[in-house]
Amino acid sequence: MIADSKPTLAMREDHLFKVLSSERFLNMEGLGNEVAHFIFDYDPEEALDVAQTKRRIKTKLNTECGISVLEINLYELCVDLLKKRNVWDRVLAAEPTMEKQDFLRMLQNMLDPQIHLAPAIKERIAGETFQILFLTGIGEVFPFVRSHTVLNNLQSVVSKQPLLMFFPGQYEVSATQGSALVLFGQLKDDSFYRAKRIRDQEI
Prior knowledge:
Layout: H1 9-20, H2 23-26, E1 37-42, H3 47-65, E2 69-73, H4 74-84, H5 88-94, H6 100-110, H7 113-126, E3 132-136, H8 138-141, H9 147-153, E4 163-174, E5 178-183, E6 187-189, E7 196-197
Parallel strand pairs: 1-4, 1-7, 2-3, 3-4
Antiparallel strand pairs: 4-5, 5-6
Helix pairs in contact: 1-3
């Protein structure tokens, strides 16, 4: 387990690889009745370095361990959904003319996690063979898609393989106040999360 004394990204990468490649993680052991959903939280300023970390880990898991990782980028998924419904051009045209709150509500309706995103992710993973799911693009879809609503709606969709969300901010875990995702280190959501912080997992 890594302590809270701010380990370097290289240390976190090493720990992450060891956790993801372990039989305990892949077999989703020791979770009780909890879903195998995990969060890798990081400083938003580390975004480019974390992207490289993610690519290295995916490659290393595949080449050294034969572990396949499926990555779903929420931003790319949202764009694909809007294009498939033939409303992408309308969204682009509306953005400079609509009030921000009206535009936000329109996008939230078009990309509702329960109605649109969860079924799209379910469809995407149905045709894939993989052992771990990476969920990325969290910062890019804020504020029209909230990470906690996505996680809540994926509990039954992604249950046969562990899921790891890469989160640009802090995942605060409190024994007394529950847990909260703090996007970009500033935007706090007080909802309770069943996901676990990956850096707290034992190797």
